[in-house]
Design brief:
Structural class: alpha+beta
Largest sheet: 4 strands, antiparallel
Radius of gyration: 21 Å
Number of strands: 16
Number of domains: 2
Strand content: 25-35%
Order of helices and strands: EEEEEEEEEEEEEEEEHHHH
Shape: globular
Distance between the termini: 44 Å
Helix content: 10-25%
Length: about 250
């Protein structure tokens, strides 16, 4: 919303599947800007609009540098590289610490230039990078390339071509998994394949009907009261796996 004289002018932006701002229009003038991008983010202005600095991946363009501010570090679309090292680059040693989205910008985006929180496809919680970025990633089977243990802390190394960032944040992800757990028969039956199948079905149905999420009960609250690592090896892990399956378009 932009103030124009004594009144306000509402402005809107259309984005593509990667979150790139493509068309900007307002209620008075119609279309005021249009942007296309090369795969790694270099802008090819079709209709330049000085009023919008949030362009590629909805990140702010720093005009004096011609770089995008991702929060943790800056990205240069001309050379398709970060301008500084990922603070957690050791978690992806097969990649250069300056590489942007594993050299695959048509599939992946990087919300802030840092790693996120990781779950296996079976719902096992692998750990957090300790950054408050609310990102969540699903790790395919066989993606782990090694690990080290130091001071009782396990650090895992993944092949990040087999890691998928989910479309929702970690907070929302946990709420949805809690709903799946709460609506299942987990409080009545033992841990079993049948219970897992039930949760997968619930999550898949909910993903097709977003209004179904958000219903709370004692079981759902118990799920949220447990930490991610405390859910490992329990019936709650089934709910996590079910939500990952639904988010990644897997089969029931």
């Amino acid at each position: 919303m932009i103030k124009s004289g004594s009144s306000w002018n509402y402005e809107y932006t259309l984005t593509d599947h990667l979150g790139n701002n493509r068309v900007t229009f307002d209620q008075k003038s119609g279309k005021v800007g249009e942007d296309d991008y090369y795969p790694f983010g270099l802008n090819t202005h079709r209709q330049a609009y000085a009023g919008n600095k949030y362009l590629y991946n909805k990140k702010e363009l720093q005009e004096e540098l011609s770089q995008y501010d991702y929060g943790a570090r800056f990205y240069d679309p001309v050379i398709a590289r970060w301008t500084s090292v990922d603070p957690l680059a050791e978690q992806g040693r097969r990649w250069s610490p300056y590489t942007y989205v594993f050299n695959n910008p048509m599939t992946f985006v990087d919300p802030n230039g840092m790693w996120g929180d990781y779950y296996g496809m079976n719902g096992q919680y692998y750990g957090s990078d300790g950054k408050n970025d609310n990102a969540v990633y699903a790790v395919q089977d066989g993606a782990q390339k090694g690990q080290k243990v130091a001071d009782g802390k396990v650090t895992r190394y993944f092949d990040h071509s087999k890691v998928t960032k989910l479309a929702i944040g970690h907070d929302e992800f946990q709420k949805r998994a809690a709903t799946v757990y709460g609506e299942s028969s987990a409080s009545l039956v033992n841990q079993s394949q049948e219970l897992k199948n039930e949760m997968f079905a619930i999550a898949s149905v909910h993903e097709r009907n977003d209004l179904a999420y958000g219903k709370g009960n004692d079981a759902a609250e118990a799920f949220m009261d447990a930490s991610p690592s405390e859910r490992n090896g329990t019936k709650k892990q089934f709910a996590v796996a079910a939500e990952i399956n639904a988010q990644t378009g897997g089969k029931i």
